[in-house]
Amino acid sequence: MKIVLIDHCFIKLTSTLLVVILFLLSAGVGSGKIIYVKPGNSIQAAVNSSTTGDFVVLKTGNYKENVIVNISGIMITSETDSYGGVVVRSLNENSSVFQINADNVTIKGLSITGSGEAANTLGICDGVYCPQARIFLEHANNCIIEGNNLYENRYGVYLQDSMNNTLLHNKFSNNSIWLDEGCSQNKLLGNTIEKGDVTLGAQCWNNTVFLNRLSNGGGIIIGCCGGNNLVSTNNVINCSTGIEIYDVQAKTVIRDNKIRDCNYGIDLTFVFKSKVYNNTISNSSIGIFLKDNCHENELSNNMVISSNESGIDLRDEITDNHIYNNYFNNTLNVRADNSKGNFWNTTKTKRTNIVKGPYLGGNFWANPNGTGFSQTAIDSDSNGIRGQPYRVNGSDIDYLPLLMRSSA
User: Fold this and answer.
1) Which residues contact 18 (CB under 8 A, 6 or more apart)?
2) Is residue 104 scored above 60 in pLDDT?
3) Is 259 a member of any domain?
4) For residues 58 and 28, is the Cβ–Cβ distance under 8 A?
5) What does the alpha-carbon distance between residue 239 and residue 274 come to, in Å, rounded to a whole number?
6) Distance of alpha carbon 246 from alpha carbon 253, whole angstroms
7) Residue 326 is part of which domain span?
């Protein structure tokens, strides 16, 4: 292992550097170099002189350049443990700060921002237009973007035709994450996004959006034609839409998310064969919104409370969706004027339901003032099912509406 000291002075071993060295030693990497860069020196030059297995370590301070990474298997990281100790600012605002065109690259522990000048949404890459972002991955696979602070730009991290990358514990401010066409098997884990959104574009398959926190922006958006994506355990606050999916014709799972103070909680448009369960949605205009021929979706075990307009809204001719074991507590729980042929209960099954009753059946229909259909009947036989059906509209009926189990 070789350590290159760019400024020819003694280097204090921070815990970050110790981790790097221990990793190299434990992996048996004897030829990997640690290349130090200090403010005033070129990150690009250090990258160009690196080879697979090398670490480019940036010393505390400010840098201003745009870096193209064409070397596979290198890490660009901060020397300091203090958050924000290394700031990399764009020299040309119309180019990405880091453009990654190689596999197995790691960018870790940096604060990355723009030049402060006006920018176009698109820049030039290899003679064609491409998105200008803080970090842009193009045909790059198995990369890790971890623990960075990205701010003041439309795109914080933009992936184009890239697979199996991990975005972990980054902080975005006025920045978004965008997966463009053909991005699959990527993982977005534990990121914090303020005044931004997460977008999965066309033909994005098998991606995971897990444990992220989004606030005051656009929420999580999944575009057309992909599928098998997982959106789980995210916290979405005060966004235009908590989670929006449109024109998705293969299974996507939305589960265990907490969404509050959004205009729409979960919005499905022309979505087939997806599952929406274990979500908590509060203080939205519409809690769950289905429109434009959504069918064969399963919505279960969700809590939808304090919606201003309706808990669930089935717009247009929505049909063949299975909606059961949900807890609705809104002034208007359901709006489904033109929909028909949806199933509002499952077969009565011995299993604990959403209000701790002994059977799965239909849904719990409550009202904030305590006069809801499921709140005004006595559970005389202690089975947690009301004896009368709940009429959703002229044709759709919940035949097994839930009750709170009697305490007697």
Assistant:
1) none
2) yes
3) yes
4) no
5) 22
6) 13
7) 202-408
